[in-house]
Amino acid sequence: MPDATEPLRHELQIAAPPEVVFAYFTDPGRMVEWMGVGALLDPRPGGALRIDANGRDVVVGEFVELDPPRRVVFTWGFDGDQRATLAGSSRVEVVLEPEGSDGTRLMLSHHDLPASARPSHKQGWDHYLDRLARAAAGDPPGRDPWLATD
């Protein structure tokens, strides 16, 4: 098992160019196609990132770096003081590299996660990055089965 100082890493191929994939991290309308039911995104260094992930859990952070369409870095955590990953306490780095004539290799590194939060974040990124790959490739993933059903 990796130690707590190692970032959680994910890598996948997406059948869309980096310009398309990048927008799914910076445009609120595109964000909610793959993650969340609402998003407030101000994609500039210091700009707000707030994602209502499922009608119950709210991600809060800010954009740190943007290098369109190659790289985006933002802080990440959950609203509320009873969370293992507090608002803005971890950092997500997304690197997008062209792959073939119209594809992208996405490499996501999630830094500074508490050990207790690693399993749920691994499961979450597996789930949501699969949805991102489908959405960016033009195959909308539909309603997220993880949405709260109060």
Task: Explain the overall architecture.
The chain is of the alpha+beta class. It has a single domain, classed as Alpha-D-Glucose-1,6-Bisphosphate, Chain A, domain 4 (2-Layer Sandwich), CATH 3.30.530. It is built from 3 helices and 7 strands, in the order βααββββββα. It has helices at 18-26, 28-34, 118-136; strands at 8-14, 38-41, 48-52, 58-67, 71-76, 90-99, 103-111. It has a 7-stranded antiparallel β-sheet. The longest helix has 19 residues, at 118-136. The model has no long low-confidence stretch (mean pLDDT 94).
Average pLDDT score? 94
Indicate the low-confidence ranges by residue numbers.
none
User: Which structural category do the helix and sheet elements fall into?
Assistant: alpha+beta
- The CATH topology annotation reads as Alpha-D-Glucose-1,6-Bisphosphate, Chain A, domain 4
CATH superfamily: START domain
Main beta-sheet strand count, sense and barrel state: 7 strands, antiparallel
Query: How many domains would you count in the coordinates?
Result: 1
| Strands ordered across the widest β-sheet | 1-7-6-5-4-3-2
Radius of gyration: 14 Å
By oligomeric state, this entry counts as single chain
Shape: globular
Total DSSP helices: 3
> How much helicity do the residues have?
10-25%
